């Protein structure tokens, strides 16, 4: 036998059964953002490598070691998108959607990062994201956080996620803080690990993110970002907190939350859970007021977030919060005799026309009646509709209940439509 070809490591198939959960999740996401007036934006999966280098930052995990970068046949360096924010800004700039305008966008789709795969972390994963432009005040930061809180409520997982927020301040304030932090790190250099030593000069704020407990112990004495915030950023953060308080959204201020991408300023936030093991961040985002300009547009503030859909689906499954899933067939049509097998699909078309939303699966592939009923049993359907010569002649159909102990009945066509209507809800 020929050797089977396997999927690329960290890139998963999504199979029937699970796709239904995804569809339900996607449906709730779409409806929720629509209820806030957000519009969908779609953009390519492949972009110029420079886009990500210039936005996410040269000294970040994503750009240093995780991008799927390749040369195309014209010799251009292209990258499979590792995230959506930079792409959204590129699309907004290129299509004149940002300057002097207010925009609320959402997007959904695959992203690619060459990370070490584990539960909740994949090389192809899916994000649902929101990006807003043209609004500098904290009301919009609060709005997108409220939107996420509503999503957890709708999914029934509010009690399993918690919100962490922080402010990174203005670029100038961060530069001042950076100097103070570097001075501190230099004076403790012998206690740092190799990664932190390397980052200390190239991207010192990321040292705060270190997962190494020894480094974290040293950092307890480090200067705090919150002590270096500029007045405007402080006021912005205070206003955000007031708005979250007023809306009853609970949060923890996490001083060492700095995020792994360089474009952020002021507000950053993450929704984290203990239900997923090591990969506990379900949703993350923040403000990026300098990014539009940095990518060649006119200065326009922006704030947004993205959530990992694999993580969300895993959570829903593990916490048994998936809820009802619509069965993929309500009715299985079985036939007896050649004429009935020709007429049944035609009648099925009529049923689909007349009973809106009804899912009708018609037996195909021949076989005797017993085999057909076995298939009906294996399908999701709750009733089998049986057409034989006699039924055809009299304009009736026999209804066999597949999931309950109920006598089968032979009814007229009009009656069967009424009976089937009840199955579509
Ligand atoms: P991020 O923190 O890199 O931010 O990713 C956002 C979310 O995507 C994470 O919290 C996680 O749920 C999910 N995620 C990231 N990497 C993986 C992976 N390898 N496997 C599975 N899920 C993953 C961003 O991407 C920013 N663009 C978010 C943003 C939007 N900020 C402002 N607007």
From TrEMBL:
Looking up HAMAP family in the UniProt record yields: His_tRNA_synth
Which NCBIfam families does the UniProt record give? hisS
> Where is the major localization of this protein?
cytoplasm
Q: What is its EC number?
A: 6.1.1.21
Name where it's found.
Answer: Cytoplasm
Q: What is this protein called?
A: Histidine--tRNA ligase
PANTHER family documented for this protein: HISTIDINE--TRNA LIGASE, MITOCHONDRIAL-RELATED (PTHR43707:SF1), HISTIDYL-TRNA SYNTHETASE (PTHR43707)
Q: Where is the Aminoacyl-transfer RNA synthetases class-II family profile domain?
A: 1-345
- InterPro entries named in the record: aa-tRNA-synth_II (IPR006195), aa-tRNA-synth_II/BPL/LPL (IPR045864), Anticodon-bd (IPR004154), Anticodon-bd_dom_sf (IPR036621), His-tRNA-ligase (IPR015807), HisRS-like_core (IPR041715), HisRS/HisZ (IPR004516), HisRS_anticodon (IPR033656)
The family database entries (Pfam families) matched by this protein are listed as: HGTP_anticodon, tRNA-synt_His
Give the record's family classification: Belongs to the class-II aminoacyl-tRNA synthetase family.
Gene Ontology CC annotations of this record: cytoplasm
Sorted keywords for this record are:
Aminoacyl-tRNA synthetase, ATP-binding, Cytoplasm, Ligase, Nucleotide-binding, Protein biosynthesis
Q: Where does L-histidine bind?
A: 83-85, 113, 127, 131, 259, 263-264
| Record's subunit section | Homodimer.
Annotated catalysed reactions: tRNA(His) + L-histidine + ATP = L-histidyl-tRNA(His) + AMP + diphosphate + H(+)
Gene3D superfamilies per the record?
A: Anticodon-binding domain, Bira Bifunctional Protein, Domain 2
């Amino acid at each position: 036998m020929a050797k089977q070809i396997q999927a690329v490591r960290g890139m998963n198939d999504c199979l029937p059964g699970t796709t239904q959960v995804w569809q339900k999740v996607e449906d709730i996401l779409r409806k929720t953002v629509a209820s806030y007036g957000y519009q969908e934006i779609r953009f390519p999966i492949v972009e110029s490598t420079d886009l990500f280098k210039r936005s996410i930052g040269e000294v970040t995990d994503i750009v240093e070691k995780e991008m799927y970068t390749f040369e195309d046949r014209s010799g251009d360096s292209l990258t499979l998108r590792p995230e959506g924010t930079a792409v959204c800004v590129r699309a907004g700039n290129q299509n004149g959607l940002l300057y002097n305008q207010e925009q609320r966008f959402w997007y959904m789709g695959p992203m690619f990062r060459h990370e070490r795969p584990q539960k909740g972390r994949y090389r192809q994963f899916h994000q649902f994201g929101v990006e807003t432009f043209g609004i500098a005040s904290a009301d919009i930061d609060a709005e997108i956080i409220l939107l996420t809180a509503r999503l957890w409520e709708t999914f029934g997982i509010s009690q399993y996620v918690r919100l962490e927020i922080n402010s990174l301040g203005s670029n100038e304030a961060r530069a001042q803080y950076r100097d103070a932090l570097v001075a501190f790190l230099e004076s403790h250099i012998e206690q740092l690990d190799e990664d932190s030593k390397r980052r200390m000069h190239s991207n010192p704020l990321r040292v705060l993110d270190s997962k190494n407990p020894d480094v974290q112990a040293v950092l307890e004495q480090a200067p705090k970002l919150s002590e270096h915030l500029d007045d405007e950023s402080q006021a912005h953060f205070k206003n955000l907190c007031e708005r979250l308080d007023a809306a009853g959204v609970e949060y923890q201020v996490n001083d060492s939350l700095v995020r792994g991408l360089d474009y952020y300023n002021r507000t950053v936030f993450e929704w984290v859970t203990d239900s997923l093991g090591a990969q506990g961040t379900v949703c993350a985002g923040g403000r990026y007021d300098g990014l539009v300009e940095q990518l060649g547009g006119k200065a326009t503030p922006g704030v947004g977030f993205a959530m990992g859909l694999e993580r969300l689906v895993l959570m829903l499954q593990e916490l048994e919060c998936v809820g009802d899933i619509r069965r993929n067939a309500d009715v299985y049509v079985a036939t007896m005799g050649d004429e009935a097998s020709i007429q049944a699909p035609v009648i099925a078309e009529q049923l689909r026309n007349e009973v809106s939303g009804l899912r009708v699966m018609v037996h195909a592939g021949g076989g005797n009646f017993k085999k057909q009923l076995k298939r009906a049993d294996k399908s999701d359907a709750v009733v089998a509709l049986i057409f034989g010569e006699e039924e055809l002649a009299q304009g009736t159909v026999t209804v066999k209940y597949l999931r309950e102990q109920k006598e089968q009945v032979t009814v007229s066509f009009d009656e069967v439509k009424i009976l089937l209507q009840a199955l579509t809800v």
